[in-house]
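Ticket #4471: structure output looks truncated?

Reporter: J.K.
Steps to reproduce: submitted the chain below (110 residues) through the standard prediction queue, then opened the result file.
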Amino acid sequence: RNRNDGLRESKHMSNRPFQADGATITLAATTSSAGSTAVPTNSYHVRVHNAGPNLCFIRFGQGTMTATTSDMPLAVGATEIFTKGGASGVAAICGIGTTTVYVTPGAAGA
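Returned output as attached by the reporter:
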């Protein structure tokens, strides 16, 4: 096996930036789950940003959801892009305090 095999396998990756294709959704996450079903189903990715002072946890899914502190953590100030699959909504919760979470539908590397 050649050391460059990994480079050939990665030729399908793109360096194109995230392209928003819908309005940004604002979630006010508290120690009770905040949810939204407004994430467009036709968007392949979502960009999620934790703009608040506390760690939060997020969950993607269908219909009414409740996030828990066992879900995916999103650090203070972190911005992540997720492939959302068929999820129609996102929920967020904080272990302590509150935070503001911004969710933007779009496409990354398209």
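Triage note (M.O.): checked the attachment and the full token line is present. DSSP finds one helix and nine strands in the chain.
Status: closed, working as intended.
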